Structures are given as C-alpha cells and as structure tokens.
C-alpha cells in the first residue's frame, strides 16, 4: 500500500501522465481513501494550470505568488 509520501513524490509523474498502469492504480486506490492526497493532487493540478513557466519564463511576481502558495500548504503534509 502506498504512503502519502509516495503519492507526493510521484504526483508530478501522475500529472504528466508519465506512469504505468500499476502505479496509476496504486495511486488511485490511495486517493480514494485519503482526502489529504486528493486535496494535494487537486491543488498541484490547479497550480500547474495556473503557472505558465512550464512553457515560458515566469515573471518574479508569478514565481513569488506560486512559492507563497506552495509554502502555505506544505505544512499540511508529513
Ligand atoms: Zn495520502
């Protein structure tokens, strides 16, 4: 069984679709049972949609906004 830490560590792969069926199934099983990780994945997904720096360079304002967001949620996770 996956731990929350495993979900957090592989969340970027999950969002990239860079994951095999077995891993994907394990993550989905965990998300079904764990509201912390559901929220984490949802926030990460929203964050990736919101930031353009995957494609072009972000401004300092955008970067600090994202970092603020990340830091404000980081404490919720082990
Ligand atoms: Zn979890």
Written overview of the protein:
- This protein has 78 residues and is an all-alpha fold.
- It has one domain.
- The protein is built from four helices and no strands.
- Helix 2 (21-33) crosses helix 3.
- The chain starts with a helix and ends with a helix.
- The model has no long low-confidence stretch (mean pLDDT 83).
- Zinc ion binds next to helix 1 and helix 3.
**Distinct ligand kinds:** zinc ion
Average pLDDT value?
Answer: 83
What is the helix content?
A: over 70%
Individual helix count: 4
Q: How many strands appear in the DSSP assignment?
A: 0
Query: Mind telling me the C-alpha Rg?
Result: 14 Å
Total tally of structural domains: 1
Structural class: mainly alpha
The geometry reads as globular
Biggest β-sheet strands, sense, barrel: none
Beta fraction: under 5%
Poorly predicted runs are: none
In terms of quaternary structure, the protein is: single chain
Distance between the termini: 17 Å
Order of helices and strands: HHHH
């Amino acid at each position: 069984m996956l731990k929350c830490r495993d979900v957090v560590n592989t969340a970027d792969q999950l969002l990239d679709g860079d994951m095999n069926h077995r891993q994907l199934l394990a993550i989905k099983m965990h998300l079904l049972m764990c509201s912390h990780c559901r929220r984490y994945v949802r926030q990460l997904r929203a964050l990736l949609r919101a930031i353009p720096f995957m494609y072009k360079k972000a401004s300092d304002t955008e970067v600090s906004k994202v970092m603020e967001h990340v830091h404000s949620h980081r404490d919720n996770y082990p």
